[in-house]
């Protein structure tokens, strides 16, 4: 079996261009050889044929005047032998016949070698010739009608046939074919050089385009191609440059808008903190005295207190996500007991009786307790608010080739998450009517969760459990005491 590198090379554009070039060269060589063979064979055989016909006619014309008509058998035999001797240079075999008499000399193969078509034409007074193959050997059969010497238009009834072997001519043709083949093979081999040069010329712009595309993918949006020539590849390079320029402009504008929006959110959340602090203090005082107020006023005070709390949490989320965007979020690792840390998160929010836990005892790891608290609180609170009970929280250690990993998993028994929503649950401000993650909060809870997990070099994923409900899994590389960030 061929190695993958060879298979990739065989499927590459260079190999296909070289093969196509060689196929064209081979087809051209074969076509030239075939045409040369046909023309050479025709020329050689025609030359042999014309020479033999003229020589036979000349010998017949020179010896017929000595022949008496009607000829006797002995005279015909002698006439035939004289023609044979005269044609030793051509190696022909002569047969004669007078009117309806037998062919002389009478040999077993005479009638077999002379085609009937040739005989019919000679009887009609027309000279004829035809190439035939007998026992695998090529022969040229010539037939001449003989006229009286006094009146060339008056046929005497004498017919002369000559059989001429063409083995030497066929040998010459085969030698020519072999010479053409011998010349074609080196020509095809030499065609590899221009094929490689042509393939290199075609592929160089393609390779440059591939490298430029890779640089664009890596974020180097100022990448441009050098345009030379005016062919289709040059047009492709110009189009690529236009596309890269438009992409660079659009991305720069998007980055500018994104930076402005982040700066706006950070500024607004920062400016809201002071008035919100004053509002919270006032609302707390009013909330303490709500019991002494009339029902309508007490209801309004509690509503204001609740909405103020939501606004405070939203501003806090905006401040937190702004710190992540600014790169100001720091990780403060401490060696903690994993089970105890997760239980504290549940107890501080009064969820210990609502959430079933399966936590390993004695497992210690280097984590940022505050950020893990935020992660678990967001996931468990999301499950309690939008999922279905019972909600479970579990942790376990998993061995992998790159080391141990801590997996923290929350699961509920709700309707689960719409598959179309799953890829977007960690996006900022994302809400969907059919999604389980739709909330009345800021829409930043899961985004903050993901950022905190990333600070720990981990990942978080959402899925639907096999028995129903949503499952969120936090995957963290397990660092124990003494290990550094």
Automatic annotation (TrEMBL):
- Pfam families, per database record: HAMP (PF00672), HATPase_c (PF02518), HisKA (PF00512)
Query: Where's it mainly located?
Result: membrane
Name the InterPro entries for this protein.
Answer: BphY/WalK/GraS-like, HAMP_dom, HATPase_C_sf, HATPase_dom, His_kinase_dom, HisK_dim/P_dom, HisK_dim/P_sf, Sig_transdc_His_kin-like_C
Q: Which GO terms describe its molecular function?
A: ATP binding; phosphorelay response regulator activity; phosphorelay sensor kinase activity; protein kinase activator activity
Look up the EC number in the record and give it.
Answer: 2.7.13.3
Q: Where is the Histidine kinase domain?
A: 267-480
- Signal sequence annotation: none
Report the SUPFAM superfamilies cross-referenced here: ATPase domain of HSP90 chaperone/DNA topoisomerase II/histidine kinase, HAMP domain-like, Homodimeric domain of signal transducing histidine kinase
Key words, A-Z: ATP-binding, Kinase, Membrane, Nucleotide-binding, Phosphoprotein, Transferase, Transmembrane, Transmembrane helix, Two-component regulatory system
| Stored SMART domains | HAMP, HATPase_c, HisKA
**Where's it found, cell-wise?**
Cell membrane
HAMP domain residues are 200-252
Q: What class of enzyme is it?
A: transferase
GO cellular component term, pick one = plasma membrane
The reaction(s) catalysed by this protein are: ATP + protein L-histidine = ADP + protein N-phospho-L-histidine
Q: Which GO terms describe its biological process?
A: osmosensory signaling via phosphorelay pathway
List, alphabetically, the CDD domains matched: HAMP, HisKA
Q: What is this protein called?
A: Sensor-like histidine kinase SenX3
Organism annotation: Streptomyces mashuensis
